Structure formats: C-alpha cells, structure tokens
Amino acid sequence: MNELDQFVGSIIDAKGYNDLDEETRGYMIEELKGKLIEQINRAILEEIPDEKVDELEKMIDSGEATPEKIQQFAIDCGVDVNAVTTSTLLYFRSFYLGGAA
Question: Would you state the pLDDT for residue 18?
Fold first, then answer.
C-alpha cells in the first residue's frame, strides 16, 4: 500500500467506515484515490502561467507528455508542486469529511 492509499484509507476510517470488507474498502480507496489524483493534477495545471499553456499543449499533443514530464514542466514554470499537492490533499480530506463546501 503506497502513501496515497494510506492517506485515502485514513479518510475512509475518519469517516467511520471501519467495518468494510476488504473488497469494498479496496474499491473505495481506488475510487477516491482516482478523484484525488485528478484534483491534484488539475490544481497543478491551474498554476501554470497562461503564457506557458501553449507550450504545454504542444507537449501533450506531440505525445511526449508523461506525468513526470508534465510535473517537471510545472516545476520549471515556477509551480511549487509540493505546496499545491499538500494544499489539495488537505482540502480533499476536509471536503470529504464534511468540513468544506
């Protein structure tokens, strides 16, 4: 189980779903992890300066874009990927547990 699985699992536990069978818990972790990854990616992309978006689109259209290359591109554009990721993780947890609208 990786760190993201553990993070999502802790949210499920905090929500009070402690008595789930292993299959259901695994399904929930995968579903929530997918949503969380989408939110992290969206938050990082939103931080890329407007003047760099065309360059990013060209990379994506060329088929050369991997998650690692996109992350490095964001870092090269001045995006603090760690801060954006941490902020998104905290917001996701708060939202899922009912603390944010």
Answer: 86
